[in-house]
Amino acid sequence: MNIDWLDIKKCRYIVVVAEELSFSKAAERLNMAQPPLSQQVKNIESRLGLQIFERSTRSVNLTMEGKKIVAIAKGLLESHQAIAETLKNIENRPLALGAIPLAFDAFLSERMACLHKENSDIVINLQEGNTKELLTACDKDLLDAAVVRLHEHDLPRHQVYKLKQEDYVAVYPKSWNVDLAKQTVCLSEFNDKPYISYPRQIQPELFDKITSEFEKVKSVPCSIQQVKSKAVTMSLVANNLGFAIVPFSIVKRFKDDVDFAFIEQSLPSVDYYLYCKKFDSNEKMKRLLALLKSTEI
Length: 297
Prior knowledge:
This protein is α/β, with parallel strands linked by helices. The chain is built from nine helices and 13 strands. The protein has a five-stranded mixed sheet, with helices on both faces. Strands 8-12-7-11 form a four-stranded mixed sheet, covered by helices on one side. α1 (8-20) packs across α2 and α1 (8-20) crosses α4 (64-92). It starts with 7 loop residues before the first helix and ends in a 5-residue tail after the last helix. The model has no long low-confidence stretch (mean pLDDT 88). GO terms for molecular function: DNA binding; DNA-binding transcription factor activity.
């Protein structure tokens, strides 16, 4: 027998009548009139081909078959309520958001402050990591989303949302004599200069692009150190160890300790993205994206 028509609403009708053993009291609990409720129960009994309730002018009682049906219907209602509570807990739990450290200087700290100021109901648990680590954590459902830096990526377009774009700049010790009259610098100025870079394996394509721009102007800097952290890189530059190429946003934190200039050569931009596999099914994530994108790209 096909009982797809016997939905949660109809199960609730027979359960409430069974609990009250009165159609008038059941109708009151269900916020409906008694005649429509009586008719609904009769229709259910007719389609099931059995009598759930014995009715008289003075009482309503369950039949033997009715007791079995009502017990199963109660279980269905309890399971339905359990699903609703589980979904509520999921909706109310903090969002697990990963982010690369660079994103905090670029825009994320400011956006988190706005989120807190607005007393939003979006609670976020932040986790730092590099782009590769955070993407892996998202794919394993250990994170809801991650703010990452991507260059020539092949991720699905519907899972990646651009948040901000900025330029790379050259930073160097204040003691260096670099002509800043035009507020830009050619990479040829750094020929033979001590260079603090980062390991190629972090972003091979970007590393090779920067290297090629040096080669175009016949500039060969002297690589003295490879550092993963841009904050550590800036500290080394501030202490006269060499120059580096970093995103513009990190300079403001070290503006009293280093000099910087925009680069004349055509370097790729620094592109920040929000990566999320289940964006459409998460309303809080949609609101978070709107907040993050409120920063001008």
